[in-house]
């Protein structure tokens, strides 16, 4: 997953750098092809990884579906958006410049990806009162022996993926009774704090998913195989 995170974040930052460099002429076609190739590699790698996880999960008697696809896909995307936002705001702060429109786009992508993940995770709890199923067993483990870790995951996800990124944008763009900041320094602090919460929160979500699927021992085996 680390390779996909780095690749996606690098493509985002490179594209932002091209757009804000002030160059009057468009970048050479080879640069555009290189960026598209890197993004294509990341997408292919993610698709391959998800297909392998699906096969391994079903072989072990677990469950898989569109919700599992979303959780697996959005994890590296959320971390990449968070990383790109932190690097971008730090760069703006060092140059003494404002966050800019691209910073707002990164905030939007980060909040959207984490928000969709949290909603998808929450829908699992609706299975607790229904017919017995693998998803119901999964949800019961999350509110039973894994309840403490589940609460921590939600806390980290909400702060790292929603509250702190939005605070960074509010400081940069202003809001009612909040004047916009001249430089990106305060926004950079919020973005770094968001990344500090986001990364462990996303990794914890992945660990909880596999532990709730198979239990602690089988989860470790699945992680080693992947």
From TrEMBL:
Membrane-spanning regions, if any?
Answer: 29-47, 68-90, 102-120, 154-172, 184-204
The protein's name: Uncharacterized protein
Name the keywords, alphabetized.
Membrane, Transmembrane, Transmembrane helix
State the species of origin.
Botrimarina mediterranea
Origin: domain of life: Bacteria
């Amino acid at each position: 997953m680390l390779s996909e995170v780095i690749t996606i974040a690098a493509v985002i930052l490179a594209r932002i750098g091209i757009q804000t460099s002030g160059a009057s002429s468009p970048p050479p076609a080879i640069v555009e092809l290189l960026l598209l190739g890197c993004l294509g590699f990341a997408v292919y790698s993610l698709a391959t990884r998800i297909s392998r996880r699906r096969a391994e999960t079903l072989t072990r008697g677990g469950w898989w579906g569109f919700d599992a696809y979303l959780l697996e896909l959005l994890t590296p995307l959320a971390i990449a958006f968070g990383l790109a936002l932190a690097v971008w705001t730090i760069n703006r702060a060092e140059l003494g410049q404002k966050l800019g429109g691209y910073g707002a786009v990164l905030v939007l992508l980060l909040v959207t990806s984490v928000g969709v993940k949290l909603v998808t995770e929450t829908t699992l709890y609706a299975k607790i009162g229904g017919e017995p199923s693998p998803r119901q067993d999964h949800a019961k483990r999350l509110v039973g022996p894994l309840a403490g870790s589940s609460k921590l995951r939600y806390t980290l996800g909400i702060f790292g993926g929603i509250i702190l990124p939005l605070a960074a944008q509010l400081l940069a763009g202003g809001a009612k009774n909040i004047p916009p900041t001249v430089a990106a320094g305060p926004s950079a602090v919020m973005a770094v704090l968001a990344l500090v919460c986001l990364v462990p929160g996303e990794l914890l979500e992945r660990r909880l998913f596999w532990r709730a699927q198979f239990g602690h021992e089988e989860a470790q085996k699945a992680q080693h195989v992947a």
